[in-house]
Amino acid sequence: xxxxxxxxxxxxxxxxxxxxxxxxxxxxxxxxxxxxxxxxxxxxxxxxxxxxxxxxxxxxxxxxxxxxxxxxxxxxxxxxxxxxxxxxxxxxxxxxxxxxxxxxxxxxxxxxxxxxxxxxxxxxxxxxxxxxxxxxxxxxxxxxxxxxxxxxxxxxxxxxxxxxxxxxxxxxxxxxxxxxxxxxxxxxxxxxxxxxxx
Length: 198
Description:
By secondary structure, this protein is of the alpha/beta class. The protein has a single domain, classed as Rossmann fold (3-Layer(aba) Sandwich). It has seven helices and twelve strands. Helix 1 packs across helix 2 (43-60). It is globular and about 45 Å long.
């Protein structure tokens, strides 16, 4: 059984999100080894963001003695995934993450039995279809899950952009048009949904 968790994004703005996520993860692994994956950012930016992400995860999980967080490295990614309990794909640019992950064509098999978390761009990557507010369009993901998602749903804005309810309605329609699916998973910031896969 592989557990996929899709999250809406801007994780650091919602402390209760990480506490709730920790509860779900801990039901499966008492002291999880988490691989923090920033492949949705340029390498230098991912390195710069890692310490804040590590701190966010440790705080949510009750301290560094309760969780082991490691930064993902493209050269050793498959070996890192094999020794991790959890792989956490952080937000950023969906296209960058999808491109980076093409280097690992059999990743679905390596994920079996793990907890795979995708937030924002990470959720878009794991899904068949998603929506990227930063480029204002629907996008294709890797399709590890046969779902269509809209991340940051109903957000009033982030990264200097502001959004209206009408914007989000158009986003849902854009994903519906691209995917052909009537049911779209809406992921507001600070929330997540859990999908178990055999």
